[in-house]
Amino acid sequence: MIGIVPSILSADFTRLGEQVREADAAGAQRIQIDVMDGHFVPNITMGPMVVEAVRRCTRIPLEAHLMITNPERFIEDFAQAGADVIIVNRGNGPPGSKGGSQPAGFRFGSV
Questions:
Q1: Strands of 31-36's sheet, edge to edge?
Q2: Is residue 1 part of a domain?
Q3: Of the residues 23, 40, 49, 96, which has the fewest C-beta atoms closer than 10 A?
Q4: What is the pLDDT of residues 51-96, one digit of tens each?
Q5: Where are the alpha helices (DSSP H) in 12-91?
Q6: What values do phi and psi take at 97, rounded to 5?
Q7: CA distances (Å), origin 72, targets 28, 31, 64, 105
Q8: Residue 2 and residue 102: Cα distance in Å, rounded?
């Protein structure tokens, strides 16, 4: 299935809530939140607090793409903040690890 999953990384952060609601109204299946720590990839972006803020703006699923070192340390934080889907990059964590237990109703993916 092909779907539209806009990333808030391209949003105007002074209008973040408004732009999330616009994407939702336009038919987005999920909202992606690209999380970068400056180690795994050179940029630094957002954390669980942003996921929590975006969760208050929409009911559609939120997808946190953890482009960070040791993502298993943060999976629970992002799930508790409201991420419905958490994606980590293959090879970015212990072999065979999904980062610990998977919360009920939660989806996990890797790229």
A1: 31-36, 62-67, 85-88, 107-110
A2: no
A3: 96
A4: 999 999 999 999 999 999 999 899 999 999 999 999 988 776 544 5
A5: 16-25, 48-55, 75-81
A6: -85, 140
A7: 27, 21, 13, 18
A8: 25
42 close to 13: Cβ distance less than 8 angstroms: no
Residue 49 in domain: yes
| Residue whose C-alpha is closest to residue 56's, from 33, 34, 81 | 81
CA distances from 111 to 15, 67, 99, 107, 108 (A): 29, 10, 14, 14, 11
Domain that holds residue 17: 8-110
Length of the chain measured in residues: 111
CATH code for the domain in which residue 74 is found: 3.20.20.70
**Total number of domains in the chain:** 1
**In the block, which residue shows the tokens 């610990």?**
100
In a domain, 2, yes or no: no
**Does residue 3 sit within a domain?**
no
pTM for the predicted model, two decimal places: 0.77
